[in-house]
Structure formats: C-alpha cells, structure tokens
Amino acid sequence: MKLYTFFRSSAAFRLRIALNCKGLAYEPQIVSLPKDEHKRSDYLAVNPQGLVPALEDGGKVYVQSLATMEYLEEKYSQPPLLPAAAEDRAYVRAVAQIIACEIHPMNNLRTLRYVKKSYGLDDDGVNTWYRHWIAEGLGSLESYLAGCGKSGKYCFRDQVTIADCCLVPQVFNAQRYECDLAPYPVIMGIFGQCMKLDAFVKAQPNRQPDAA
Ligand SMILES: N[C@@H](CCC(=O)N[C@@H](CS)C(=O)NCC(=O)O)C(=O)O
After folding, report:
1. Which of 3, 13, 55, 158 could potentially form a cystine with 26 if both were Cys, beta carbons 3.0 to 4.6 Å apart?
2. Domain carrying residue 53
3. Which atom of ligand 1 is least distant from the CA of 111?
4. Does residue 60 sit in the same domain as residue 107?
5. In this structure, are 112 and 192 located in the same domain?
6. How many helices (DSSP H) and strands (DSSP E) are in the chain?
7. What is the atom index within ligand 1 of the atom nearest the CA of 110?
8. pLDDT tens per residue, range 46-68
C-alpha cells in the first residue's frame, strides 16, 4: 500500500492510525501542503480533488479518509474499528462525522488561506477564526459523547474505533493552535488513553519522515 500523506494533515493522520491499528504496512508518499504539492498535476492525477490523503491498494486509489477507513474495515476486518451492533456503529460514525464533516472543514488549510486573504486577516485574526470553530465543534462533541453514555476508555467503551482515529488528530490540531482544551474532559480523557497505544503514537506528526 502507498499512503499519500503529509505529517501535519489530520485527515492523513486518521488513516495512519487506522492502518497501524490493523497492522497494515504502507509506504508513505509525501505530499507537502505548504509547498502546494497537492495542487501539482502528478498529484491531481492520483486525487483530482487535490486533497491529502489518498491510499493506493492493489493498484486502486481510495480518497476521503472516512470512506477509506470504511474500505479498510470491509477489506481487512481484523481488528475491527467499528462495533458489532448497528446502533453502536451509527454512534461511532456520528462521532467521526462530527469531527471530519463539521469541525475539520472550517479549519482546513484552504479555508484558513481564504479567510486570511479575502478578509485581510493577520495571524491573530486567523487564530481567532480557528479557535472559534474548535470551541464550537469540540463543545458539541463533548456534549454528544457525555450525553450518549457510550464512551469509556475510548469514544466507544473500551474498543478503539474510527471515532478515535478522528478525535486524536483533531486534538493535535487544536493543541497546535493553542486552543483551551480544559472545557472538554471527556475528549481529553479519551485522547490520553489513545496516546498510550503504539498505533496512535507512531502515527503522530512528529514521528513522520517529513516532520524534520
Ligand atoms: N474530507 C477529506 C478532507 C481532506 C483534506 O481536507 N485534507 C487536507 C489536509 S488535512 C488538505 O489536503 N488540505 C489542502 C488544502 O486545504 O488546500 C478527507 O477526510 O479526506
């Protein structure tokens, strides 16, 4: 397998965790976002959307991290990253989507570049935008996790799932932007438990070959 990845990409980080959890080896193909390598024609030939990550397996390319994690789950079922019961799967997918569909797009590189350029924001202005959407997104995620009563060591009881693969990179991102994470004890408790696991530790940004 080849993973088109960038060390700071939280969507690529999700896949690195999922691949590690399933014990699947991959060859990293580095696509630098600050150098705009994701917009080069050779990468657009891999992923026409021009976004990282993309996963190549068996000569086929898979894009969109949630869809790709579902692909991995179907093709390489062990250990499972989804619970057995339909209602629990729906909960895990909801947690993953709160992060990947509601929080992450507001704070993506192209969004930050756009608000900076179009509204003449300086770095403080961009950080205010970033922290606003983190506070709103993590606040509602915290309420959802606490209210559902399904979380345990991880987002779903004591089973690592795709929800954790999404939660940990989002917290890394929020830490990078120095967001106040004290209001989210459930999220931070899960984060702490995940970061005791090799699969998560090895996938973190500063352990990647392009992190130098
Ligand atoms: N929904 C996509 C998001 C992919 C995405 O936005 N990746 C970011 C890096 S985390 C990216 O390539 N950004 C480039 C840009 O915004 O220009 C997924 O889950 O794969």
Report:
1. 3
2. 2-79+200-211
3. 16
4. no
5. yes
6. 9, 4
7. 16
8. 999 999 999 999 999 999 999 99
CATH number of the domain to which 107 belongs? 1.20.1050.10
Pocket of ligand 1 (CB under 6 A): 9-11, 33, 38, 51-52, 64-66, 100, 108-110
Three-state DSSP at 98 gives helix
Task: Look at the chain and count its residues.
Answer: 212
pLDDT digits (tens, 9 = 90+) for 85-138: 999 999 999 999 999 999 999 999 999 999 999 999 999 999 999 999 999 999
Distance in Å, CA 85 to ligand 1 centroid:
30
pLDDT band at 212 (very low <50, low <70, confident <90, very high): confident
In a shared domain, residues 35 and 125: no
Whole-model pTM above 0.70?
Answer: yes
How many independent structural domains does the chain possess? 2
Q: Give 149 Cα–ligand 1 centroid separation in angstroms.
A: 31
CA–CA gap between residue 152 and residue 50 (Å, rounded): 36
Mark whether 207 and 192 lie in a shared domain.
no
